[in-house]
Every structure is written in structure tokens, then in C-alpha cells.
Amino acid sequence: MYRHGYRTPLGTFPTDEYQEWAYPNGFRQLTKLGCQQQYELGQYLRSRYANFLSDHYNASE
Question: What would be an example GO MF term here (predicted)?
Fold first, then answer.
């Protein structure tokens, strides 16, 4: 599966005026755009593998 999308930076340099407080969800977290990207990817994968996966979650698949 995928875990990447638009994310906040890994960190900043010590004198950066935009420290972690500038990123409400913290460093290394998905942005709103990143969340939307992952949602759309999930929708695509669901449609792409519709005949392969059951309609309800099954951990053995």
C-alpha cells in the first residue's frame, strides 16, 4: 500500500521562524491535501480491484 501524500516537513532548521507551531498536526503528518490524495487513491484502488476484494473488509484478503 501507499503511505505517501503531501506531508508537512520532517523538521526545520534551528533559526526558522516557522517552527512546529506553524504546523498544527506536527511535522511529518499528512496535510489536508495529502489526506484527500490518500482518500482518492483508496477510492481508485477499491474500484480497480472490485472483482478481487469482497464488499466488506476481510483481513485475510
Answer: phosphatase activity
